[in-house]
Input
Amino acid sequence: MQKSNNLNLTLVLVAITASLGGLLSGFDMGVISGALLYINETWSLSSLEQGWLVSSAIVGSVIGAAANGFLADIYGRKKIIIATSLIFILGSLLCGYATTPGWLIFSRIIIGIAVGMISFVAPIYLSEIAPEKIRGTLVSLYQLALTAGILLSYLINRVFANFEYNWRLMLASGALPAIILLIGILFLHDTPRWLISKGKIDEAKAIFQKISSGQNIDAQVAEIKATLSSSSKKEKFSFQKWMFMPIFVGVGLMFVQICTGINTIIYYTPTIFNLAGFSDNISAIYATIGVGVVNFLMTFVAIAYADKFGRKPLLYIGLSGMLISLFALSFSFTLGETGKWLAVASVVVYIASFAMSLGPICWIMVSEIMPLKIRGFAMSAATVSNFAFNFVVVLSFLPMVETLGKAPSFMIFGLITILSLFFVYFFVPETKGISLEKIENNWHNHVSPRKF
Output
């Protein structure tokens, strides 16, 4: 029994370290929201220019995710995470020293490359080391780290708000979580599934010995080898008909996660609170910190219940809460300044609903549903679509508010949320308690997503 506990502890430590990649993504998402208030005091930027400044990191993310799919399959998950840390450190320091908006935008593109790389390789790493019974919980650690990164960035924004070089210190401080991830990942191994795909069977068994608890290691290795051998060499680089559905569902989940409006809240929370009636930057930042705390705490709900209740029930609950809060937020803008506290409450409910559902669950499911032979490439494709949707939403948000108005803008996100509920019902499978190999077999055998 003692041996089992030690092995479980090893698995948890490995998962926590790998999930720190989420800290980088979250920090980048959150820190620009507060920094933007003070960047506008250095340079007078139009709404479109602000949108480009914020979304420039997303441009880099698309590049990083697109290039990284094949690289992760070739060089392994660990080396990519190391590269990510180094790139993020470089980008953060360049942001702190930016002397022109163009320099700052270029620096954020570099950071975005790191974010794009880590956003798919960390969930893959976690899903490939986790037993199916606790896979949802361990992959949720990535989203928990992401929300922790957002909250950390909000706190950093408040710490440096009154400093002379406020936004520079905010952005440069992103190097610190990247250094922590770099140090931690140096002590980890690559995933057993990737090692087996490269014929390194003994090394994979040694890692399974450390992270498995009471499981037949030879049987695990045999199942993974069987899954790999079932795909021909031709399938490795070309899509078969049965591969269409997991790709479609993965991209669809990314659409649902982003186009329901989450990053308008994350990237522009202080700006939204200013629009709602909070007149000074410090008050908006304090309100934003409260949102960050809720975002962090509610992620524990997904960690606790993703493997207990299943993925789809949490998606239904979360989308319903987001729908109600989006319509309430839209209504609050019709009330003028008297509606600012309704706006705050709506944002809090929205964030809480997202944090316990779409935030972690979409990444859990995308990391689960992709076929092993093309998992790096397929996950990269889904991640690229995530950042592409993200880019469009973030870049267009402020111009959309100027053109359509505050209330109609959030009403549009509410309508998209309704469509998302139908998508989840008809096309998204339940993956709770199913091995990655069984999920792949279901796709291969054309099992309906509603009958997994």
